[in-house]
Design brief:
The protein is built from 4 helices and 5 strands, in the order αββαβαββα. It has 183 residues and is an alpha+beta fold. A 5-stranded mixed beta sheet has the order 1-5-4-3-2, covered by helices on one side.
């Protein structure tokens, strides 16, 4: 009986995320070398402000920007593709196409009722020319207490996926760091 409960809990924890996708587009065949080039996070903006019912009163868009910037910078550093002085600078600007903070209590009561969701688009720019981009969507559709802070979790998942896709698609495969590191 305890085994059944344990298996059920593990299944629920692993399947709490809802729909997810990532698309990557490179407009050139150029692969960057992580020894000589690095990604710097540029502007982060919301395409549309979230509806009032999707945001709690103490929450501001700046919180989203800060969390996304921190998470993406961590991912870029972990993959060894972050900008450092002396390297060629590649800018990534982030547009958050859609965002919903969600509510863990409502997720616990009703799957998808209190989902946390983010859809983000990142462009890669060299000398003010767009050379590629990544689009990511992450959702936490149901769960209870363990999904408290889901708003931050979907941002972190999206930023990590954006960093991973940039690493895999835009940088040469012989980089020192492995683009497939676990989150």
């Amino acid at each position: 009986m305890i085994k059944l409960w344990l298996i059920t809990i593990v299944f629920l924890l692993l399947s709490a995320c809802g729909p997810t996708y990532v698309r990557t587009v490179l407009l050139t065949d150029t692969k960057f070398d992580p020894e000589t080039s690095g990604i710097m996070v540029g502007e982060i903006e919301l395409e549309n402000a979230p509806a009032p019912q999707d945001m709690n009163s103490d929450f501001k868009p700046e919180d989203i920007y800060k969390a996304y910037r921190e998470s993406l910078n961590k991912a870029l550093n972990r993959y060894g593709i972050a900008y450092e002085p002396g390297k060629n600078k590649i800018i990534t600007n982030i547009t958050i196409l859609g965002y919903k903070e969600g509510n863990a209590f409502i997720r616990w009561l009703s799957p998808a009722g209190g989902e946390s969701r983010i859809q983000a688009q990142a462009t890669l720019e060299v000398d003010d020319q767009i050379v590629g981009g990544v689009e990511s969507q992450k959702t936490i559709a149901w769960g209870g207490a363990y999904s408290i802070g889901g708003w931050r979790m979907v941002i972190r998942l999206s930023a990590n996926e954006v960093g991973k896709q940039i690493c895999q698609e835009a940088f040469s495969k012989n980089s020192k760091k492995n683009c497939y590191l676990s989150d």
